[in-house]
Design a protein that fits this description.
- The structure is a homodimer.
- By secondary structure, chain A is of the alpha+beta class.
- Chain A contains five helices and twelve strands.
- The first copy, chain A, is globular and about 65 Å long.
- In chain A, 39% of the residues are buried.
- Chains A and B meet through strand 2, strand 3, strand 6, strand 7 and helix 3 of A and strand 2, strand 3, strand 6, strand 7 and helix 3 of B.
Amino acid sequence: MPEDSVAPSTARTKVRRLADRGRYDRETIDSILDEGLVCHLGFAVDGQPWVMPTTYARVDDHLYVHGAAANFALKTLASGVEACVTVTLLDGLVLARSAFHHSMNYRSVMLFGRAERVDDPKEQYDSMIAIVEHLVPGRSSDTRLPTPQELRKTLIVRFALDECSAKMRTGGPLDDAEDMALSFWAGVLPLSIVPGAPVPDVEQPAPDYVNRWTRAR
Amino acid sequence: MPEDSVAPSTARTKVRRLADRGRYDRETIDSILDEGLVCHLGFAVDGQPWVMPTTYARVDDHLYVHGAAANFALKTLASGVEACVTVTLLDGLVLARSAFHHSMNYRSVMLFGRAERVDDPKEQYDSMIAIVEHLVPGRSSDTRLPTPQELRKTLIVRFALDECSAKMRTGGPLDDAEDMALSFWAGVLPLSIVPGAPVPDVEQPAPDYVNRWTRAR
């Protein structure tokens, strides 16, 4: 792994407990961000924390989020407050022999920093396309593209992937030795996000990129 | 809907934009909390926001989260700082004719308040059982139950459901009138969390409540 692909570990990003679950390489971080659909934006106003779900896209070394120009979260983030953005993928439920050792398999990324407002029209346009393409690969070439007026109605901010870390749990249950002989079933129930049948707005066969949509690794 | 089942709308919980997406009745709020598996805990320390994913369970009028006694997020929450807890269910991708009107169908709950540390051993025990049962209904009667020593190693906090609101988007794309004649496919791709085949820790048939696990409504 080349040195420049490693996000430096800082006091904020260093995984404190269960340190073997921490990952700091951009390959891991990017793969989680690129698989996720929703991020949770955290910020505080007058000491009151807010956690807002929204979609996003990663483009190179930035994560972009957008919303209406009047959106409270976006306006607050664009003002440059400290933020934390978290993306969590739930991979499975871990059923241990003891209630105490029940757990989840997951992969998450936590990103710290201040948002930058995106004012360049080309970057605004590209990031809006990137978000559509992130949600539904193939869609951006099969939709009516954004107009300058639509871009003016949209507030877009970006976060540099400078200070971020991944955390994950994989594998089976970790039971205490003295519980291993118990007869309770133990194992993992894998979970994934699966599409149902597309629901057309007007009767029209769905395109291939919709019918084949998957978030499976 | 009886009056006492309605969480009062406050300056924090009132849904500001797209107000028709806001819901304040406990039936809606509880159904989202009971379907979700992961919440995102938001809090700030010295102005720095943190957003941490974890599991939880609702019991009556409280949401319980737990972790190791040394867990940074739990210790911070137990100290009584202001918090925001968000649960988000992703129901579908909304493909509009225009890139601009792409959206997501979702249901989310946002809860504000300060955590209370749970010190009563019976409430600790019950909430640990509730979390196992919330993840895998039927499991709590088929696992080795928590010991007093395990409860001492666990930090449990609860949030009262006093100040919370739900927000949701349902239905198809909302395109501009002038885009309706465009030939791009438009509609919704429904998404849900689906279990795979259980992976046993040692060869043993999975119990019915594992094989039948579903989070479908």
